[in-house]
Design a protein that fits this description.
It is a single chain. Helices cover 42% and strands 22% of the residues. By secondary structure, the protein is an alpha+beta fold. A five-stranded mixed β-barrel has the order 1-2-3-5-4.
Length: 183
């Protein structure tokens, strides 16, 4: 089992990177290959996926990203090829927040995630991603994404999120934010 690899990026593709380590090129599937730069050295945290017909390496820039990936792949019906695009198109805190709030609609926006898999993710992972001591208030990634999608500027969004209750459902948060933004 590999923990990480240090080396230079020699190739970037839409699904993977190639890391050169001591003259050996390792093809590593990653959520955001274009966040790496060719000819720069990186530490890439690894997960080795082994099945009878496949051996693959999955890479992550942070341990937090790797940890969420491993938890997602532990969900029944959710494999590596479904979990990786979730990390590519969503933020870690947004995914965790959606699971904790049981927001099926947010989870269904990811490729190949339907209603059944979204509900299974919530069933299997709710309460396991956030420690009891961790405070969820102030986590407005989903609200920020929604308001940006409506055309609001980040500076304006940050002003109103201070006045929104983090414990409310996302729909209530959006309504409150829109009221404040329209004033």
């Amino acid at each position: 089992m590999y923990a990480y690899i240090k080396g230079k990026i020699t190739e970037i593709d839409s699904n993977y990177i190639v890391v050169d380590n001591n003259g050996i090129g390792y093809m590593i599937y990653t959520a955001s290959p274009y966040s790496f730069n060719i000819d720069e050295e990186y530490t890439v945290y690894l997960y080795q996926y082994v099945r009878e017909d496949e051996i693959s390496l999955y890479g992550f820039k942070t341990l937090e990203e790797k940890d969420l990936f491993l938890k997602l792949t532990s969900v029944k019906g959710l494999g590596c090829k479904m979990a990786l695009p979730m990390l590519a198109t969503g933020s870690i805190s947004g995914i965790v927040d959606a699971i904790e709030r049981e927001n099926v609609l947010y989870l269904k926006k990811f490729p190949k995630i339907g209603d059944k898999v979204a509900r299974q993710i919530i069933l299997d992972l709710k309460g396991k991603l956030v420690s009891n001591n961790e405070i969820q208030s102030g986590n407005f990634d989903e609200l920020t994404e929604a308001l940006k999608g409506l055309g609001y500027k980040t500076a304006d969004i940050n002003k109103v999120t201070k006045m929104i209750n983090a414990d409310d459902e996302i729909e209530v948060q959006i309504k409150e934010a829109l009221k404040l933004l329209l004033k």
